[in-house]
Amino acid sequence: MPARGPRRALLLLLPAALPTAAVLGAALTVAVLQSTGLMPVVGEPDPTTATYRALAGDRALLDGLRVSLGVAAASTALALAVGLGMALLARTTRLGGRLLRAAAAATVPVPHLVGAAAVGLLLADSGLAARALGAESFPPLVAGPLWVAVVAEYAWKESAFVALVVLAALAAGERELDETAATLGAGPWQRLRRVALPMAAPAAVAAGGVTFAYVLGSYDVAWLLGRSYPEPLPVLAYRLWTDVDLARREQALAVAVVTTALALACLLVTAALLARTARTARAVR
Amino acid sequence: MSTDLVLDGLVRRFGGAAVLDGVDLTVPAGGVVALLGPSGTGKSTVLRLVAGLDTPDAGRVRAGGRDLTGLAPERRGTALVGQRPRLFPHLSVLDNVAFPLAVAGRRRRAARAEAAGHLDLVGLADLAGRRPATLSGGQEQRVALARALAAAPAVLLLDEPFSALDPGVREGMHRLLADLRGAVSPTVLLVTHDRQEAAAVADTVAVLLDGRIAQAAPAGELHTRPASLAVSRFLGGVNEVPGAVERGAHVSALGRLALPCASPDGPGVLVVRQEAVALTGPADGDATGTVTRVTPRGARWRVEVTTPAGPLSAETGPGRTPAPGDAVGLVLPPDQRWVVPQATG
Ligand SMILES: Nc1ncnc2c1ncn2[C@@H]1O[C@H](COP(=O)(O)OP(=O)(O)O)[C@@H](O)[C@H]1O
Ligand SMILES: [Mg+2]
């Protein structure tokens, strides 16, 4: 690649990146300023970390953090396993690849809210699944203690995203390399382990990072299919924001800042992982 | 450990049309056979059938007495190097070469040590730590060759492996292949559409025309003793004198020309390579005529002459060349005369 390649790519990204950065930056700045008392809704600026200190000791935040991270981790792991598995399976036949691509392309644009409603209709204790099975006591999947419906919805939608990204990454010559590996004596499992998985890994890591950050910051699915307590961070932030007590607004912003910081940290870790896979020549094991 | 390779009546159809229509070919153990044919005749298909990447509609593939037909590619011992090197982008050069060894269950250190030896064999020991993306085309192809050799294949399959390289690099690769034969004597089936390459690298050249092996012979014999007009034309032969064989001589508009070896009586076309034809004065020669055209061919000239038997050509070296309109004589050296059957259909 020519030396000016990366710089040019960055330039091309600018029109998309600038508005995003501007909106996100402005919102985040206001949130930080308000939650630290530097830009109060009424009265003089009075810098303080009181809001954050209060939150740090608050059960609601800690429980919310636990639930948010748990749901994001479970959804991401499931989406990665399903999406990666589907992509690797689909690539073995031409028809499978085309079908999966079509199915995934149809799934990705479905809004999460619609997906959540559908999952709700399917998995609620009076839903289709319960009726079809005719079970006496259907497990509480929706609004249950294990957040099954929430995780299922995210995993379903995001696995389609993962599958698309991985298929695109494998499209570039992986089939030829698979044949080459076979003529060099590698059986199906060896080819999966030594060729397909390493080639899919960067795409899967990227898709996983994006999924984790997205689930961490998204509101609608958990609000529709989750429990009333503990609340995931975005649900907590929204409830605090709409509280009649105006002082709660600062706490809401503080929760939003914490959530954003977590999502950004997740993306940074992803970027670091990607840089590593790009750099190291994977050793023969 | 090299073995022989035997193709027995291979047939492959794509959508009804038989691309391969009964290919029979034998590569002796440690031998190099070049499969030569025009583009799109199914040369790559032959290699894919041997490697197990494709399944024949009929026929068998055997190596060292073992029937390979129906075996998975990884169980055949037939490494394939294609036109593009297909190195694994996520592995270093050394680990690419160590790949078949690691797959065979060798420990990492042992695999790398052995791979380093193969890399040395192709003269690239210095590049062991590099990523494939940082190599030149010729270097990539050498690595691909080293990787294939590391698999210790019973048969090495090469599908136009040098055709994407610059001429100078290509000649280097031909020398490398000759050196490798001295070092490890693999059995090689090489596909190419380049006559020069086939002649430079192979013991035997097999010409694939219309889905069958039209002729398999050493390159020199192929050019001077083609089995048919089609082979003669494919190899670039332009001189064809229609006539008939009568008692050891070819009789045509050029008169009676004695033949060096016995041919059955009957209609036949006399072919003489244009490189073998010499020019003399108009009074001498086996044929006389007028020069119609002179075209440069690198360091040589192609001289086209109209004769009573139709147009004939000679190739002359640098030096005095006749001009169009000159009357000349053509010498068809007796030991270069060869008769093939008339084209049918
Ligand atoms: N998988 C395939 N499906 C359909 N046709 C094919 C396939 N592979 C090869 N062919 C056809 O078979 C013919 C021979 O191809 P190929 O073996 O690649 O020729 P070559 O290597 O001699 O140039 C071509 O006409 C090509 O279009
Ligand atoms: Mg080909």
Automatic annotation (TrEMBL), chain A:
**Family matches, as InterPro entries:** MetI-like (IPR000515), MetI-like_sf (IPR035906)
Q: Which segments constitute the ABC transmembrane type-1 domain?
A: 65-270
| Primary location group | membrane
Among Pfam families, the record links this protein to: BPD_transp_1
Identify the keywords attached in UniProt to this record, alphabetized: Cell inner membrane, Cell membrane, Membrane, Transmembrane, Transmembrane helix, Transport
User: What membrane topology is given?
Assistant: Multi-pass membrane protein
What's a GO biological-process term for it? transmembrane transport
Q: Which Gene3D superfamilies does its entry note?
A: MetI-like
**Location in the cell:** Cell inner membrane; Cell membrane
The source's superkingdom equals Bacteria
GO CC, alphabetical:
plasma membrane
Residues passing through the membrane, by range: 67-90, 102-124, 195-216, 252-275
**PROSITE patterns tied to this protein:** ABC_TM1
What does the sequence similarity comment in the record state about its family?
Belongs to the binding-protein-dependent transport system permease family.
PANTHER family with a match to the protein in the record: INNER MEMBRANE ABC TRANSPORTER PERMEASE PROTEIN YDCV
Q: Mind telling me what this protein is named?
A: Carbohydrate ABC transporter membrane protein 1, CUT1 family
From TrEMBL, chain B:
Keyword Nucleotide-binding attached: yes
Q: Which Gene3D superfamilies match?
A: P-loop containing nucleotide triphosphate hydrolases (3.40.50.300)
- Molecular function terms in GO for this entry? ATP binding; ATP hydrolysis activity; transmembrane transporter activity
Task: Provide the Gene Ontology terms for cellular component.
Answer: ATP-binding cassette (ABC) transporter complex
| Annotated region described as Disordered, given as residue ranges | 305-331
Which Pfam family is an annotated match for this chain, by its short name? ABC_tran
Q: Which domain of life is it from?
A: Bacteria
Q: Which InterPro entries match?
A: AAA+_ATPase, ABC_SmlMolc_Importer, ABC_transporter-like_ATP-bd, Mo/tungstate-bd_C_term_dom, P-loop_NTPase, Transp-assoc_OB_typ2
Keywords (alphabetical) are: ATP-binding, Nucleotide-binding, Transport
Keyword Transport attached = yes
Q: Per the database record, which ranges form the ABC transporter domain?
A: 5-235
User: What is the name of the protein in this document?
Assistant: Putative spermidine/putrescine transport system ATP-binding protein
Give the species. Answer: Geodermatophilus nigrescens
